[in-house]
Amino acid sequence: MPTIVVEVMPKAELLDPQGKAVVGALSRTGHGSISGVRVGKRFELTVDGPVDEDLRAEVAALAENVLSNSVIEDVVGIHYEQSNAEAAAEAAEHHDGYDAPAGETH
Questions:
Q1: Nearest-angstrom CA–CA distance, 47 and 61
Q2: How many domains is the chain partitioned into structurally?
Q3: Is 84 within a domain?
Q4: CATH number, position 41
Q5: For residue 63, how far is the Cα from the chain centroid?
Q6: Which residues constitute the domain of residue 81?
Q7: Angle, CA 21 vertex, CA 20 and CA 22 arms, to 5°
Q8: What pLDDT does 81 receive?
Q9: CB neighbour list of residue 82: distance below 8 Å, 6 or more residues apart
Q10: Category of 30 on φ-ψ map: left (φ > 0), alpha (ψ -120 to 50) or beta
Q11: 89 C-beta neighbours (distance < 10 Å), count
């Protein structure tokens, strides 16, 4: 089953109190070289069936209108991930017939 990942972050011009808290905690635990952290949200949507243009449009609308608050957040990414079985099936479908010897690539 395909998984769609939607990433949402606070708008760059807004303060990020969670990020500031994480930076403070990192500093207190000896990781003072990290000077900034921004905390966002990640949504993983599992879908039945193929990811076609209609579904992509639906997910884009959901990301903008439901999963994020457009006043304070930006949708920074929508990624379409395949299961290992789907990736293997697609690779077999597009196989060029050449098998590289062990340790070599083509």
A1: 16
A2: 1
A3: yes
A4: 3.30.1280.10
A5: 12
A6: 3-93
A7: 90
A8: 82
A9: 2, 90
A10: left
A11: 12
Residue 82 lies in a domain: yes
Q: For each successive 10 residues of the chain (106 residues), what is the average pLDDT?
A: 94 95 97 95 94 94 97 96 66 62 55
Q: Do 83 and 2 form a contact (C-beta atoms < 8 A)?
A: yes
| pTM more than 0.90 | no
Buried b (16+ CB within 10 A) or exposed e, 50-78: ebeeebeeebeebbbeebbeeeebbbeeb
Backbone torsions φ then ψ of 51, nearest 5 degrees: -95, 100
Question: Looking at the chain, how many residues does it have?
Answer: 106
- Determine the pLDDT at residue 8: 98
3-state secondary structure of 37: coil
Distance CA 80, CA 57 (A): 13
Please report whether residue 101 resides in a domain. Answer: no
Q: Does 59 fall in a domain? A: yes
User: What is the helix (H) or strand (E) element at residue 100, kind and residue range?
Assistant: none
Q: Which residues contact 6 (CB under 8 A, 6 or more apart)?
A: 42, 43, 45, 59, 62, 63, 67, 75, 77, 78
